[in-house]
Amino acid sequence: MDEQLRVGLVGAGPWAQMIHAPGIANHPGTTLTGVWARRAEAAGELAVAHGAEPFEDYTAMLSTVDAVAFCVPPAVQGPMAIEAANAGKHVILEKPIAESVEVAENLAAAVSSANVASLVVLTRRYAPETKELLAQLHRTGGWTGADGRWLTGALLDGPFSNSPWRHEKGALDDIGPHAFDLLDAALGEITDVIAANVSETGLWQLILQHAGGATSTLSMTLSLPLQPPFAGFTVYGPNGHRTLNSRDTSAQDCFTNLLDDFVAMVHSGTTTHECDVRRGLHLQRVIDLARRKAEA
Prior knowledge:
Layout: E1 5-10, H1 14-26, E2 30-36, H2 40-49, E3 53-55, H3 58-62, E4 67-70, H4 74-86, E5 90-93, H5 101-114, E6 118-120, H6 128-140, E7 145-151, H7 164-169, H8 171-174, H9 176-187, E8 190-198, E9 204-210, E10 215-221, E11 230-237, E12 240-244, H10 251-268, H11 277-295
Parallel strand pairs: 1-2, 1-4, 2-3, 4-5, 5-6, 7-10
Antiparallel strand pairs: 7-11, 8-9, 9-10, 11-12
Helix pairs in contact: 1-10, 4-5, 5-11, 9-11
């Protein structure tokens, strides 16, 4: 690229340290210009490690960048991303994109009004093996159902076990966007949540309706001590079945692929993508419907 995108990073937690900061700093089309976090000390440490400037004032950081990548809880991300879009900054969003449908709608509207690029970090969608399977499914067609399982003990141990928002919201908000996105991309848009239940241990089980008549089932939890964790999706129909359970592409490489798309969008003036903010809004609505169905 003739000119690198100046990117500011919001957040300095484990995922920002492992994925966002090194990904942005090492990508040929981006430079990590600044870091802001609620804990100034953490922002300073992460910024120094990657040659960026730490900021204590978020608005001040916005004035120095072309784009902002967020790696903070959804309740924090929503309002801050709206401010970034209103300032004309392109945005990379974590999932879910906001704490509520209302804020997600406001964010999508701000991105649209500002005519800026947006991408949501739906990690597996940027993996070549996922793209290959989805292309195959669409070429074949005729799929009538799918079964998804995403089972981890992330709340029990590991870098995200002390995440307050994950403990509060559970698998529906953390795993849900990834799982809904893959099922939706494979079978067609999710139009309804037929049934939803969450156990006392945090196991979510759902039945989903898709446009065109297909249905899918999904089980997901953050509280099952499986080693290693398991994530798999099987799509089936008259033409047999296809399964996606490969994680050959690392999360870091998936993020690099996301940055490839993001840089290309910004330089070409493109503001639409299959994983843009509108996708995030759709997934937010599915989350909201599932939670209301479970509470009914």
